[in-house]
Amino acid sequence: MDYARIDQFVLRLVEESGPERTAWNLEKIREGKKTTWNYIDGCMITALLEMERITGDQRYFAFAESFIDAFVLDDGGIRTFEPDKYNLDDINEGRVLFALYERTGKEKYRLAARKLGEHLKTQPRTAEGNFWHKAIYPNQVWLDGIYMAQPFYALYQKHFGGGDYADIVNQIKNVRAKMFSKEKGLYFHGYDASRTAFWADRETGCSKNFWLRSLGWFAVALADLADILPAGEDRDSLAAILRELMAHVDRYADGETCLYWQVPDQGGREGNYLETSGSAMMAYAMLKGARLGVLDGAYAAKGKRTFDGIMEKYLTFTDSGLNLGGICLVAGLGPENNRRRDGSYEYYISEPVVENDAKGVAPFVLAYTEIKRLTP
After folding, report:
1. I need a surface site. Which of 60, 169, 236, 272 has the fewest CB within 10 A?
2. Which helix (H) or strand (E) holds 315?
């Protein structure tokens, strides 16, 4: 595998990007809109900071700092952040503030992290105590939201909350209790505590199917939390949930490529396809979990096989350089006025498949940083 060309690929994307427009946020590009504070860019900035840590190449950090600098004001306010939306996706980008403050000492990063954390405390919750995914999705918990909020929340508690992680652990345990299918060993994409959403089962509150990327977000969140939480009961309980998920996910891997299917339990069904972003997330979670010792060491080899499978199937060479394909652009559940997003199999396979979107590129790069730790 010619891993060295991945560095060139990532640097090319960085060179083509800036605070007003990034090469990897295809949703903004397709809408013709300027960049805002959002999780897509947040994921990529997280990946770039990891690239700088593992390679020492300051170009990654320089871009990350200049990009976040353009949004964070001197008083810690965040340009384009809309608190009234109570959108967990918009919390995600805040996790990079801690690393930037540690490296630069800029007070505005610390202030912004504290403000985001205080805002998160006001997030509406389900009766069980879980954050709503967004204000427009009342009483709904999505697997995606665990990644969007909980690693940031853990960093906030570490720096400002005295290391109290009980709320985080309880929310994830609630997800295990409400959204896990014992039959399939997978987690449903969404759960409606009120059981009134058009896509929700009236008895369980869960959505109809499993979606690979939501499972990937959940796995990555658990791996990242294992890196943030100190050794002890809280970390151990989350590690057990990660081990259980990985043991079940393993049986859904494609035998040839070791990638995973867009609808993971229906491999080979007409219209289904091996999807890059969720596969990269699984690879990263396996590699990182093994490195941290919360997964068996054999998962490092499994994660590497999945990463190599992505390279073989979806990393292509063109005159402009490398391109990463096979990425589902977006998928969700509702809201009420968008009933196409109903959690059905037909819905999940209908969303656009694209190249070079950060929802695929960022976890691919994060997995790459774990590969580089294995083979420096």
Report:
1. 236
2. strand 315-318
